[in-house]
Amino acid sequence: MQRPGGRTARVRAQVLRAVEDELIEHGLAGIQLGRVARRAGVGRSTVYRRWGGGAALVADLLESMAATSLPRARTGSLAGDLAANARLVGRTLADPRQGALFRAVISAAEVDRAAARALSTFYAIRIAEWAPCVTEAVERGEVPAGTDPEEVFRAVSAPLYHRLITGLGTIDRAAADRAAATALAAARAGVFVSDAETRDESE
Q1: Taking every annotated instance into account, which residue ranges of this chain make up the domain HTH tetR-type (predicted)?
Q2: Do 94 and 172 sit in the same domain of this protein?
Q3: For 50-107, what is each residue's pLDDT tens digit?
Q4: What is the C-alpha to C-alpha distance for residues 48 and 203, in angstroms, rounded to an integer?
Q5: Angle, nearest 10°, between helix axes 54-68 and 6-26?
Q6: Which domain holds residue 144?
Q7: pLDDT tens across 157-174, in order?
Q8: How far apart are the first and last CA of the chain?
């Protein structure tokens, strides 16, 4: 669904920026709609009428983040595409504000089903954006047929999110490149070939 423009779009942007601040500072449980309205410079009734609660605000925030994320890379090789993806994830998580926001969103998803669904939807959208990198790599013969794009990109980002959540290790370009290289090696070895594909070949 296309979002309306003009004042409505500006109000949404202001409110979602305020929600980011609230999440970072107070977590999902600490979000107060009145305070969100004050931060955003809009009427409290506007926030209550359109969103109604913290979980709905977080869901809309994640929808906005998915819609405005950078498009996938097209480098011509899976190695280049995975490195581009890893570096994008790494830059995002290493950013002081964005890293804190993702920690807050992940924490919210642990305690609220609506937030968890919104987070799952966010990542499904981002994986769908990048999945053609893998399907094109299969067509080029870089990785085996049946390689699961979702598993490949989970393998790329998981080490970087581990660093974010645990605070162990720096999230830098070297870490991103290691994550991409490890996922690429596993993909080439057939680690991410789906069970269905494996069964078909053995029959």
Answers
A1: 9-69
A2: yes
A3: 998 888 999 999 999 988 888 899 999 999 999 999 999 999 999 999 999 999 999 9
A4: 58
A5: 110
A6: 69-202
A7: 999 999 999 999 999 999
A8: 44
